[in-house]
Predict the 3D structure of the following.
Amino acid sequence: MPNGRLKEQLDKCEHYQKLNAYLDKSESYQKFDAYKNKVLALGNDSLEKTIAVALSLCFVCAILVSFSAVVLRPLQIENKAMDMKKNILDVAGLLDEDTDIHQAFADQIEEKLVDIITGDYVEDMDAVGYDQRKAAKDPAQNITLDSNSDIASIKRKAKIAKVYLVKKGDTIQSIILPMHGYGLWSTMYGFLALEADGQTVKSINFYDQAETPGLGGEVVNPNWRALWQGKKVYDDAGEPVLKLVKGVVDTNRPGSEFQVDGLAGATLTSNGVSNLVKYWMSAEGFAPYLDKIRNDG
Ligand SMILES: Cc1cc2nc3c(=O)[nH]c(=O)nc-3n(C[C@H](O)[C@H](O)[C@H](O)COP(=O)(O)O)c2cc1C
């Protein structure tokens, strides 16, 4: 029971009085109160008191943790959505220190759904609420890949992909494509931003990966990411040939526009990045969509 001034204040509170009246009448509470008094009267070295205190502590902590999880859930969802928008603005080259993320995203980015097989837009679904990562795990919404075509080691992919367009009026400025694939330790999720020609790279970023910091984790290094700008994805035959090479790219050699420096000491992650870019830019990924963008505008 509270003491002193707090008790005085509480005694004046109508709800507190009602609660007390209810508890006084409750048989279970009376039993609990009697047991509590009995336990508190035991010596501190009593086994029963130790167990009762430990269990009470667990109970209180469990309630606190559950309460926090429920209360913080909407905030977590909001932060996750905000973080995703930030990554998309970043790869689109539209992120400054003082950018209002929600506003910039709403003003400059259009979310579209694309049928991964035909490359057509899917207009009868809500693009904003669609979660491609969730869809890739749902048997009703995914395609299982056979091991020969699964060069990015992803096992399954969503039938419908979510792409992001940066537009000025009706004209597409850049196309942001989601990609993922296995590195050395983890599936790396990221975006590739292409110019409106569907061929020239604007930027790349990985927003979710667990490669070793300083080795494969250098996929997030801005200096390495900057090397991608201006690189080309497709050769004259329309094959996606952009890849990472060991060491530093010799820009004087023909074909260097299709090459990016590999990550030092991280050939396996580098191979993972090459594979996932190749996969998502191939006919299995966004090639049909990019063909349509090039042909239909
Ligand atoms: C603790 C530890 C973490 C490593 N993390 C990575 C990694 O994230 N990505 C990677 O490609 N290689 C990583 N490696 C190195 C690989 O085992 C392998 O040696 C390397 O990919 C070969 O690349 P290199 O030929 O460029 O040296 C790690 C090695 C160790 C010992």
